[in-house]
Amino acid sequence: MLWKSNDLDMASIARQHYDAVFRFCARRVGVDRASDVSQETFLTAQKVLHKFRGDSTLSTWLFGIALNECRRATRKFAIEPVSLILETDQIQQSSGEDSIVDRHALSQALAKLSSEHREVVILHEIEGLTYEEAAEILQVPVGTVKSRLHHAFQQMRRSLFVAEEATR
Questions:
Q1: Mean pLDDT (whole number) for 158-163
Q2: Integer Cα distance of 70 and 1 in angstroms
Q3: In CATH terms, is domain 1-79 a member of 3.10.180.10?
Q4: CB–CB of 139/84 below 8 Å?
Q5: Which of 41, 85, 98, 152 sees the fewest Cβ atoms within 10 Å?
Q6: C-alpha span between 160 and 30 (Å, rounded)
Q7: Residues 68, 145: contact at Cβ < 8 Å?
């Protein structure tokens, strides 16, 4: 679908996509800063809306902008995003014994990943984006996303195995 800039109304875009962008940002910069970063995302989007060609979905385009804003905030405020990833998810657990993987161990395994590997895991596994959408946001080929995921999962398996062995 070819987009025309006059077809896009920033207010309706914000109403439709704000919650998803907020959750996306909260996983990277924490709930306290997510509102500000989300607002910056939509301000940036408004400034460059005329450049949106419709090659990707509007949400993928917004997530790309949000990712850049999150990276900027992370550098500016020296935020360590790894500890925030799982804390913002509303995972229902009745007890730690019921979960297959301990959330703390998973956070630690994510923390050990390089930023490139961590980001593809977050985009694909936590955000639920397709390989193509993750590739578009990260501006890398789809094969690179798949390769990074493969290597990230291998490293996480090793980390989780070590963590499990340490608790025995």
A1: 84
A2: 29
A3: no
A4: no
A5: 98
A6: 24
A7: no
Give the model confidence (pLDDT) of 45-78 as tens digits.
999 998 888 888 999 999 999 999 999 998 888 8
Q: What is the pLDDT of residue 99?
A: 56
Q: Which long-range contacts (CB under 8 A, 24 or more apart) does 43-48 make?
A: 44/68, 44/69, 45/10, 45/13, 46/10
Query: Residue 39 CA to chain centroid, in angstroms?
Result: 16
Question: What ranges do the domains of the chain cover?
Answer: 1-79, 97-168
Confidence of residue 150 (pLDDT cuts 50, 70, 90): very high
* CA atoms within 13 Å, Cβ hemisphere of 93: 14
Record the pTM. 0.77
Q: Report pLDDT digits (tens) over 101-114.
A: 677 788 888 888 99
Domain 97-168: CATH architecture, name and number where available = Orthogonal Bundle (1.10)
Q: Answer whether residue 23 shows pLDDT above 60.
A: yes
Query: What b/e string do you get for 109-134 counting C-beta neighbours within 10 Å, with b at 16 or more?
Result: bbebbeeebbbbbbbbebbebebebb
